[in-house]
Amino acid sequence: MRSCINLWIVVALVVPVLLSLRRPRGETKTQTASSSFSVKLANSLHFNKRIRDGSNLEYDFYRNTCPQAEGIVRSALTRIYFDHRDVAPALLRLFFHDCFIQGCDASLLLDENDGNNNRSVEKQAVPNQTLRGFDKIDLIKEEVEQACPGVVSCADIVSLAARDSVLLAGGPFYPVLTGRRDNHQSFFKEATDQIPRPDDNVTRTLHLFNLRGFNARETVSLLGGHNIGKIGCDFIQQRLYNFHNTRQPDPTIPLDFLRQMRLNCPNNSNTNIDEFVTSKPTSSDVHSKPGMSYMQALSSSVSSGSTFDTHYFQSLLRGRGLLFADQQLMAEDRTAKLVSAYASDDGSTFRMDFARVMLKMSNLDVLTGPQGQVRLNCSKPVTS
Predict the structure, then answer these.
(1) What does pTM read for this prediction?
(2) Which residues are annotated as a binding site?
(3) Residues annotated as catalytic (active site), given as ranges
(4) 128-169, pLDDT tens digit by residue?
(5) What gap in Å lies between CA 254 and CA 252, rounded to an integer?
(6) In terms of Cα–Cα distance, which of 342, 354, 230, 333 is closest to 281?
(7) Which residues fall in the annotated binding site for heme b?
(8) Using one digit for the tens of pLDDT, what is the confidence trace for 212-223?
(9) Which of 70, 184, 168 is nearest to 119 (CA)?
(10) How many CA atoms lie within 13 A of 128 on its CB side?
């Protein structure tokens, strides 16, 4: 029985790597070579001098110290999901914003920076002020702590919860290695400057992902995660009413789609793209907050299956991207070809690629072994 489990683990981890070596749909030889160069560039510009590439992570890391850990995360999240379906996109976004800044180290969850309440934390950075799900991670952490005090890191809980959220939302399963440690400090400035913005052009989007070792295909695949959940009106208001400070809408939006978007997001002249939100949303306004989903973005004449399918990419092909940064994927030939490739089948290509790149993202720049700590409370570092 043990050998069968080990064989499954090997297959689950090796197959995505083998698949990534083939030339994928929508890419040319030149683009593949360019991607290789981009990875080398990313390595040379890496943000951390320490080796934090996930190579020290293990499958079922807590098998001896807390064998029920992953089961607790899964069952707790499942209970939460059936009461709050919007928790899936919230935790996926939380995971992305944490991993994108200095790696998957739960630094985003801190309420104080290295034990100092007077230093700004990532939560306070403008791109993170609309994040939700912190309370859900705390609930899961409490259950894990009751079973195994001081053993399972918040960083591992965030990565596992994101994977299980994707699965609950109809997305693909992918293996998550564990053994991450939590950071004792938070990175406010980096979060402010380096989180991709909804008004970014395709060049800046690709550049930011490139610096972290993601090529164009992986970037387009990750952005496909926008196909679940709702894009808040705060993120598209400028595009609808004051694009580039012209007091006019983005001229590239089809007129029928512009009318649809404006019906969902009426004009709010006080909205500024640099000030998406001035206060953290409460649990009572999560469901009432206006916005649109990519299911709504598709015209009624276009069929769409489950929520985690190709409708995001189909929307971009029809010029119906909700975020300017999303629609910008059609502005460059190499990304436009990838969008077309993902939209052209039943979703299996996208799901396979998304699973592979989420595994890669979850291993990004992690702390392991003697690095970092295991927090007892995800919002507070452990102090000596």
Answers:
(1) 0.81
(2) 98, 103, 105, 107, 122, 196, 226, 285, 309
(3) 97
(4) 999 999 999 999 999 999 999 999 999 999 999 999 999 999
(5) 6
(6) 230
(7) 226
(8) 999 999 999 999
(9) 184
(10) 31
